[in-house]
């Protein structure tokens, strides 16, 4: 077992952490992130101060974090933060770690909302956004941070996840434009219409949900398990979606390539008069469904 028996420099300690994480897909990067987190510095500082000595307590704490990562725990759960769309969001074991693929939903939502702002003069009214399965709030809070005219309603079945979303909304100074609800997919008995409905609901088939030590296995099963075919939660959303979107509205629903075709089919069945399109992620994979209503 690696341990610190004598004072170690930054470079020596980083080398030991990199060795411990060598079998991972991003071992050196993870080692740098965890050391920077341990000593309260950034990664650039590490590279510029390799000969600086660390205390034994710092080195021991760092190696303990590296062992957690070597055991599969995602770096974001170790540090408590994850990057998304140029911002940092608090995360814990009660919420999914935001993925780069979800940034496409943000981009499309922003383009749609900004087109409405540009079309209104001089002062646009409030633009309404609903996020089903809000989790950490990374998607919805990012939209509010980018569009001052927008207001967000978000729901999640997990009370613990809603606490994380509220915390992130406060960190980004958008909380006053947010309302959060505990609900199974969407809040019940509402006649509110929205300019954008956005969802990254559980979409992994139950039999395929990863287990530890797969890093995804550390994430909450309630946020991963989409039922037998991965689409149970989207079926619930689609029963309500036709009455949630206002004229000219946009719905964006993230899933995975194996299930995206069936999700698009369900959307077409639920909203036969809407335009339904499958859109792609950074890797060119089918990743999400866009449903557009004509004005």
What is the topology?
Layout: E1 8-9, H1 10-20, H2 27-39, H3 43-48, E2 53-54, H4 56-70, H5 75-79, E3 81-84, E4 87-90, H6 103-119, E5 127-132, H7 138-146, E6 150-156, H8 159-171, E7 178-182, E8 194-199, H9 232-244, E9 245-254, H10 257-270, E10 275-280, E11 286-292
Parallel strand pairs: 5-6, 5-8, 6-7, 8-9
Antiparallel strand pairs: 1-2, 3-4, 9-11, 10-11
Helix pairs in contact: 1-2, 1-4, 2-4, 6-7, 9-10
Describe this structure in words.
The chain has 295 residues and is α/β, with parallel strands linked by helices. Helix content is 39%, strand content 20%. It has helices at residues 10-20, 27-39, 43-48, 56-70, 75-79, 103-119, 138-146, 159-171, 232-244, 257-270; strands spanning 8-9, 53-54, 81-84, 87-90, 127-132, 150-156, 178-182, 194-199, 245-254, 275-280, 286-292. The longest helix is centred in the middle third of the chain and has 17 residues, at 103-119. The model has no long low-confidence stretch (mean pLDDT 93).
Order of helices and strands: EHHHEHHEEHEHEHEEHEHEE
Task: Enumerate the spans where pLDDT stays under 50 for 5 or more consecutive residues.
Answer: none
Percent of residues in beta strands: 15-25%
* Mean pLDDT rating: 93
Classify the secondary structure makeup into a structural class. alpha/beta
* Separation of the first and last Cα atoms: 64 Å
Strand count: 11
Q: Overall 3D geometry?
A: elongated
Q: Whole-number radius of gyration?
A: 21 Å
Largest sheet: 7 strands, mixed
Helix content: 25-40%
Tally the helices: what do you get?
Answer: 10
